[in-house]
């Protein structure tokens, strides 16, 4: 995860709660000065992410929590937005 060109520690931005069949992810509020997409309403957090520091993408959370189930599916898909390279990838 990146904020501009600086790496961000995900453990300081998310709280992970493990349950038996799922994981709850709480999205901690991002400082307002860091959020760059003012066009979207109700943004809790928005981060740049990079694969091998070459393929940059963005993930925007319009929810303060979501669940990842044991088979990899997640809740709140309409409130977690992907853009740039990652949005072009085929989901499996």
SSE blueprint and pairings:
Blueprint: E1 2-3, E2 6-7, E3 14-18, E4 22-27, E5 45-51, E6 55-61, E7 65-69, E8 80-84, H1 85-88
Antiparallel strand pairs: 1-2, 3-4, 4-7, 5-6, 6-8
Give your account of this protein's structure.
With 92 residues, this protein is mainly β. It contains one helix and eight strands. The strands form three sheets. It has a three-stranded antiparallel beta sheet, with no helix packed on it. The two termini are 22 Å apart. 4% of the residues are buried.
Short description:
The chain is mostly beta strands and about 90 residues long.
Q: What global shape is seen?
A: globular
- Cα-based radius of gyration, to the nearest Å: 13 Å
Percent range for helical residues? Answer: under 10%
- Name the beta content range: 35-45%
Number of strands: 8
